[in-house]
Predict the structure.
Amino acid sequence: MQWDSEIRDFKNYLKLERGLSENSIEAYLRDITKLKEFCQGENKSLEIDLVTSQILTSFLVTLSQFGLSTHSQARIISGIKAFYKYLMIEKRVANDPTLLIDAPRLGRKLPDTLDLFEIDKLLAAIDHSKLEGPRNRAIIEVLYSSGLRVSELTNLKLSNLFLETGFLRVVGKGNKERLVPIGSEAIKYLNIYLKEVRSHQKIKKGEEDIVFLNRNGSRLSRVMIFTLIKNITIRAGIKKKVSPHTFRHSFATHLIEGGADLRAVQEMLGHESITTTEIYTHLDKSYLKQIIEEYHPRS
């Protein structure tokens, strides 16, 4: 069995049957390619159907020796397991060598968040005198107001804005659609951007329905969103590492801390499993500890 042809078929499967995004597909393929290079290196020339659990274990030991983090190792194992699961479904292999392979245990890392004061500092650091100022303000307002992923923001469409009723239609992971509420401040600055900036732009063909555009009239890239947020964070004097996902984490954390229903937050974030959303219930434990120390009679 040839690696290249099977990897190509796996890519089509992920795209057509699983409906994964290009970024997710590329991540899967990078992981499988690492295994392919290991199996074909050092004169082994092993094809897919000859890979055993012992060979996979040697591969993982090699990754560890190269200093790959446990999170990266776990992601690669997950990708390889998905690959062999696909091969079993398609009856391309008789045995699944990943069944005896366990991913390394991961500690549950709580995501960084911003408090309200820090969010206000970020918003105040945006230079509205520049052409991109109103757009950048609208971007951060929408990220924090609706908890969007960066890919959901860059692909947000005008036809999916229902600002009169306070909702956005978002296309998330696996091309799943969901309706997400948007707050009044975000609507205000989104309208300013649309009416005062975007309406005067020359828009590239095919991008007419995209909300957030660069100076050339094309949709913004993920890298551009990360860069503009990084620059605003520096101007605001905030020392935390802030990314688009930080606003998503902050959105969820502030809702949970304010007493929002966990199922409602799950729906708004587009989490498939509520266990993913439950991480936000642990974010305020330092506050709970403070309450115990201040008010418990035997603390």
Remarks:
- The chain has a mean pLDDT of 84.
